[in-house]
Amino acid sequence: MLSWIISVWTILVVAQCYFSEENHTEESNMHPPTVVLAIIARNAAHSLPYYLGATPFSLAATDHNIDNTTAILREWLTVMQTQYHYIEWRPLDKPTSYVGEPGPKHWTNGRYEYVMKLKQAALNFAKKHWADYILYSDTDNILTNPDTLHLLMAENKSVIAPMLDSQSAYSNYWCGITPQGYYRRTAEYFPTKQRQRLGCYPVPMVHSTILLDLRKEGTKKVSFHPPHKDYSWPFDDIIVFAFSCRISGMVQMFLCNKERYGYLNVPAKPHQTVEDDRINFVHLYLDSLIHGPPMHLSRYVHVPPKQSDLMGFDEIYLINLRRRPDRRDRMLWSLYELEIDAKVVDAVDGAALNSSDIKILGVNLLPGYYDPFSGRTLTKGEVGCFLSHYYIWKEMVDMQLDKVLVFEDDVHFQANFKRRLMRLMEEVEQVELDWDIIYLGRKKVNPEEEVAVENVRNLVYADYSYWTLSYTISLQGAQKLLNAEPISKMLPVDEFLPIMYDKHPNEDYKSHFPNRNLMAYSTHPLLVQPCHHAGDPEWVSDTETSTLWDDDNVRTDWRGSHKTLKGSQPPAGLQRATYKDEL
């Protein structure tokens, strides 16, 4: 009866505003939900500083380490422990490996069971403390979107995962599973991974980073350990949990790809090492610098400075326009992470050159040159690009540098870049290959297969190519290019180089350069790619978006040159070359 009267009073207050309580203050806000964040770390020193820069935690376990994972976590806890309601810390220094484990990236049944028990302990801890949610997140999963937790909660699902990006097709979900509990390929996977469809989708498997809503009735029935009595699938913690959700009859796993939430590292193979895992993570970090949002180091963890070197080259050059500081900063961070020491060279800015400047520099157009697609002549951007490379060749000769490495400022490094390049150069030296230039990044124009170089892995004789993204060049090669006196008969630098190794299809152009004996090769597969291609929202070309070399009033852009998206073919009637979606 009392409750009924109170209810009536509440209605009267709202409806008639009669009582003095009508001036009541607003109700206070609800307490935010309580969340247990469980981290299980092993040999994660390379990713932990970034992980801790993005993800706090309240329960952590680390063991079986051969690196300084424990020290990093302890350092972070020393500063941050007062910021959390409760932290449970379970470090274990010994042993450093599991019984029967041939390497730190190999998973034995004993290791799987130990991880299941740790995850179950975290789940029990969360339930004991009446937490509303528990978030599991592997230490090579970097949640760069600060709203990830709130966004997942808003979906109101029992078990949900944010789709994380990687360096490959790998992600933290399956769209299909076989009756035996193995991965099954489905038509939905790639449209989801590539965000061609956006939403929150039911899937049979999510892993690596998952959020459980412990307020839901169904989550009371799910577990990691021990496996269900009817379990016969592979002995793997993520599959055991997926089976538990399925057998409960009340819990459906969901994947959400509505936003960009962060990144996960592609797992190392069983035979690989912690160093291989570190290198993989470095390239994941480089991807984040390009596609964003980038990863950030925790302010509360000390990371020793990296030791960079020249990789056996006499000099490494990074060509950058001063008015593109964003590109310079990204490239310098990338090179720092790769432990590569580079010298920044201010590019010649074609946009700052007027026709008089160009004439003073002695620049003249190659007679008869026209862009093969648009029919226009040289742009000032192309003049600036050519001069930037030319001055590096000249410095090489002036300083008698035996070999150098050149980067433009929009380079996307491929996996294991440094290791693969150093191995290549060692093999080139061992076989005493006569070389002048080796492309590390280019656009191969013709579809025919190129001839492989004997006794040197992943090296081919270069055919007609576009782009000067990155290359190595020898002193002999630089001298040959200077001897050709290209300034007085200029065309784009990526057209000039194929002329010099006698692979350009235009005989008229080649007739102006009689000594076409440049020894040109290319890595295969390529070691770098452009960050963006023509038509991408972030794509900018300072060579194409310019003006004609001898007329400041005629504007040009890539559409005028019929350049197109990556992988497309040129319109009928144009040169057989694939478009130069260049920088």
TrEMBL record:
A Pfam match: Glyco_transf_25
Domain Glycosyl transferase family: 314-496
Keywords recorded for this protein, A-Z: Endoplasmic reticulum, Glycoprotein, Signal
Signal peptide positions (record): 1-15
Region ranges (Disordered): 560-583
Similarity section: Belongs to the glycosyltransferase 25 family.
Name of the protein in question: Cerebral endothelial cell adhesion molecule
Taxonomic lineage from the root: Eukaryota, Metazoa, Chordata, Craniata, Vertebrata
Gene for this chain: LOC107597609
